[in-house]
Please model this.
Amino acid sequence: MTVCLYPDRVDIAAARVGPGERPVLQSLESFERGGSDADALMRIGKKFGLARTNVTTLMPAKQYQLLTVEAPTVPVEEVREAVRWQIRDLVDFPVEQATLDVMDIPAASGRQKSVFVVAARNDNVSRVMHNFLDAEIGLDTIDVHELAQRNIASLCAEPDRGIAMLSFDDAGGYL
Model:
């Protein structure tokens, strides 16, 4: 189950994904938002019984930055901290106030390995988490648009074939 908050609406999508199967969309609904994030989530949570469901949501597009940097040559358990210092001049807020996630980018042999870094202000991540907590909705994952689309595309891809996926929302388009 995915619940996405927008300025004027709340979108909810539910899909079933079985092992080795393509995802099947079970429902897709959009509701007028009305009120604060917490109020909207509380109404939607009660209507759909989301207290018993772990959901995914998306960070609002303007509340994170997606960066590409060279992969640091440090032990795996130190990658986040090393990347934190690599991006200090690339983010528009103090890096000490950032929640980070790092994802490897496959590299061809002989090429420098790179990583995607998602950086969001701690207070923005905390606000999203608390809105779901206050609405008694189990929040499993906070994702970002670009990587959520990549994850969906990977579930639909056929082995050894490319796939393109185009989507639009209030923030723009993603390919």
